[in-house]
Amino acid sequence: MKLIYGVKDRPAPGRLILFALQQLLAILAATITVPIVVNSTTGSDLSISAALFGAGAGTLIYQLFTKFKSPVFLGSSFAFIGSMCAAFAGGVSASLGYLGLLIGAVFAGLVYVVIAVIVKFAGVKWIDKIMPAAVIGPTVALIGLSLSGSAIQNVLTSGVFDAVYDSGTSSYVMGVNSGLCLVCALVTLAVTVICSVYGKKMLKMIPFIIGILAGYAVAAIFTAFSYIPGAEAMRIIDFTIFQSMEWVPDFTFIEAFSGGYTAEGSSIGAYIGTIAVAYIPVAFVVFAEHLADHKNISSIIETDLLTDPGLSRTLLGDGVGSMVGAFFGGCPNTTYGESIGCVAISGNASVITIFVTSLMAIVCAFIAPFITFLASIPSCVMGGVCIALYGFIAVSGLKMIQKVDLEDNANLFTVAAVLIPGVGGMALSFGKVTLTAIACALILGILTNLLVRVGRKNRTEGAAPETEAAENVVADAAPAGEGASEDASASGKEADAAEKQTAPDAESGAAGEGNDGKIS
What we know:
This protein is mainly alpha-helical.
């Protein structure tokens, strides 16, 4: 899709606020989901508004490191959920658990810093060799495809009632609530598509806002009928959350530095070692996603961010931004595919939009009614939007694969080695460390690519003696072709003469073009 606003463009103030709000809505669901999942798993009390504040602050840091050249928002990373849960495991006190979140974020951030230093001195060519388009393309596609299950589950879930999945038939059991959720999701998706495809001017650039509002309106109508006795299943929106609004974010560092650090059955040193093991390997996984996301956004804005501002800067921005995000909200940050999808669909790559989105996230963390309203958006409505967002991520990866020569078996096997393990969900756990399906697929793709390239190099080297023999045969046959060589030489002289004759004409033509260019 052709960009309407480039990276350096500045939309008018009114439009800028709308574009920033659209970005905020795009990243909101995933950003607040991470602390919710950790809270439900560990019994902790991570603040949703603090996580949003941390995402905004982390994105500002990222933008500073990347010289405001990369239109990407950073939000809470799903990859670190297991690591965050490990911080609260083993009977540790609440304050030590929160401190563990900060220590873990520092470990993860240092991994980025170390890789950034290596890239600074070694360059990025080695990355292109081990992760060419045949590896990165399917990996980007997998990022979108791996989120598809979450999107569909959200489509059939209201937030009041959960979707019921029948493992026997591998399908969701449709009831009144699931059916109404599906209607809300389809309305959201349809309005988003119509605005994006048929909309004019602003409607075309803010399809997510219009789609979410339309879906929310339909959900509100269903919810209004749910208060009729016997119609409770029609409740889509949980308005009771407005009774317990969080007026001030409960920042992680406040609880982390409150003291009272205890760990049952282990020392503090052993606990820190556990945190290191839980966070550091995952940081390498997120590094791979970092590469894939930046390759993706680079293809959208048609500027290679790995060279300008440079991979070392994007890594430092992501790493330090993660530390800052965890300091406030407990959640390490990562580049968001939802943000990239929003850029692709809206055609707005203006980095000032991301900057304003960051400020908006920070400010909204202190506006309880607004943040509560955003949190009240039903899962099904966000699911309808996510079908488009995640789909665009997957399609972006497929577009990268289009440029790969799949007639070459080396490329074909490499793409296959990424897609099948990723789609098949080959996630592996090693104690407290979990390699996601995307990470496993990427590793297999890299290994396969190296295998076929090394094999091809060896075959080429093995063919060298045969090439030399062929050259000797040609050399021996040279005397028999002297006449032909002389003819070719004569033809070459005639061609040189013809070029000299036409040169003045060509020069005058070029001058004419230059004059035309100046006039226009």
